[in-house]
Write a structure and sequence with these properties.
The chain has about 150 residues and is mostly helical. The protein has 2 domains: about 70 residues; about 70 residues, Orthogonal Bundle (Arc Repressor Mutant, subunit A). It contains 8 helices and no strands. Helix 1 runs antiparallel to helix 2, helix 4 packs across helix 8 and helix 5 crosses helix 8. The relative contact order is 0.14. About 5% of the residues have low confidence.
């Protein structure tokens, strides 16, 4: 299947997701876009740029849908208490997670180790009672949209 068709299909699946669990499944299915090829071989540079662009589109769609799902959720208010329980450092990490950054990227941005970020992301997920980064990001984005 051509990359454009794969990207369109992945984005359509993401926007059809009715809840965070379905969104996680759709994002997982779209993860194939991030692989260079089934054999693990490097693709030509133009293919890698196309794959990176497609992955960016899918990531943006997932973040947008995650925000919508969180806004629709009755649990959003309960999870505000979880947000308040985060320390300032964890809120900063969650901001970067909601922008689609990996733990390694966040570590570079904040000038600490990836292991430190790994630990704090797990703590964030526990405090927010979120089973995935997408759910935690949705909670954060939804809370920011509603204001203080």
């Amino acid at each position: 299947m051509p990359l454009l068709a794969q990207t369109a299909s992945a984005v359509a699946s993401i926007f059809r997701a009715r809840d965070a669990q379905e969104l996680d499944l759709a994002v997982g299915a779209a993860g194939g876009l991030l692989r260079l090829d089934a054999g693990g071989q490097a693709a030509p540079s133009e293919d890698r740029r196309g794959i990176a662009h497609a992955a960016s589109i899918v990531q943006d769609a997932a973040a947008a849908r995650a925000a919508e799902i969180a806004a629709e959720s009755d649990l959003a208010m309960q999870r505000n208490a979880g947000l308040r329980s985060l320390c300032e450092f964890q809120r900063g990490i969650l901001k970067w997670v909601s922008q689609g950054k990996s733990n390694a990227e966040i570590a570079l941005i904040l000038g600490c180790t990836k292991r430190t970020i790994d630990y704090h992301v797990l703590e964030i997920l526990k405090k927010l009672e979120a089973s995935s980064r997408a759910k935690a990001a949705a909670i954060f984005v939804s809370a920011r949209a509603r204001g203080p």
